[in-house]
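User: I'm writing a short methods note and want a consistent example. For Coproporphyrinogen-III oxidase, I'll paste the sequence; you return only the structure tokens, no commentary, since I'll be parsing the reply automatically.
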Amino acid sequence: MKNDSRIVWDMELINRYDLSGPRYTSYPTAVQFDPALSASELVHQGQNSADKQAPLSLYVHIPFCAHVCYYCACNKVITRNRDRAQPYLETVYREMEQLSQWYSDDRIVDQLHWGGGTPTFISDSQMYELMQALRRQFNLRNDDQGDYSIEIDPREASPETLDVLRQTGFNRISLGVQDLDPQVQQAVNRVQPLEQTQAVLDKARQLGFSSINMDLIYGLPHQSLESFDKTLDVVIGMNPDRLSVFNYAHLPDRFRSQKHINPEQLPSPETKLAILQHSINKLLDAGYVYIGMDHFAKPDDSLALAQAAGQLHRNFQGYTTHAECDLVAMGVSAISQIGRVYYQNEHDLAAYTQAVTQQKHAIRRGVCLTDDDIIRGAVINQLICHFELDTTTIEQRFGILFNDYFNQEQSELTQFEADGLIQRHGSRIEVTPAGRLLIRRICMAFDAYIPKQQPTRGYSRII
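Assistant:
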């Protein structure tokens, strides 16, 4: 399909459909992961259903942060004691060795991502050591043609660190920015001068990193339409290849650090929506393509090109160009997708360490996908990545009659069509410019695990 970034802002539809719902980084979502499933069964099913000729994607979770950002909902360990990193890495190496025996099969690693926490919390020598360990256990590329990325806190990245990252094979970085307004930064305990971010950006470009992403967050304390517009002006001027504009969900009962945020300082729901609408329009006017949900990319970026070619995919790192890869994840709370299996590691650092020490792996819970999961997951992935669906393709791929198989979903699709969220033309379902903001709600129609006609719990708001 051709890229079409148009968005129509329909407040009546938004008010009606903006419930809570999954982000569909997997289907079934992590809510369905079952701790009663044994690790041996999950691994067995994964090995037997994996395509051993296909490339791999690797993920390493590094949970440590030297400072707490009050808005953060990631699985993290706040410490200034850098000595905690080495014992954790030793545990990761032990887990990595087991994962290599299970899944490597000399499959080439086309995608690698380090996330956190703050991956650059570890020292330059530890980064080098971690990458060497990965190269010993897995078939990493040496031609700079892979998609090797890392999340960077500009406060924790010296020019020497960027040198090490580039030398060891990274070619993409994601910079946490969130907001450039000093008052907002103070309120969320993330004081990060523009000069610091600009220095990392300039060094990364000098070193030849092929893609640079920046993360922003709307809905933080003291933000206004005017203040966030100034942040956007500066960020657009910095010219990143990709931008993520995330919604801040204030859930202090779930995330302890958010208790430090004064709810009276948060922008109103109306202001948040105005900020989002303005951000989308401003980024489109600046030449970015609306990939979906929170993500934007330049037209020549690989994400936009993959979407234009109908090859975009979605996994636990968000939108990706590597649909064919099994995802092997290591570290505390990391989630893997191998063949027809999803599973997640222990979420607590002590439990993760003990599990790897005693049994060489840390698998805590997971799910084995049924045929129905595969079919519904394919439909959801196609809609959330491309805003359109050819039902004939689904019929041919899975040997079903679409309207018969999804008979119970037809009334909801009819309602979506009547409300202007989708259009149906024969075998094609197209999400309208008014429906794109509500794509998660449209995907929920195909989710067999969500009770129909009632709000969902445990998920963030759609917008």
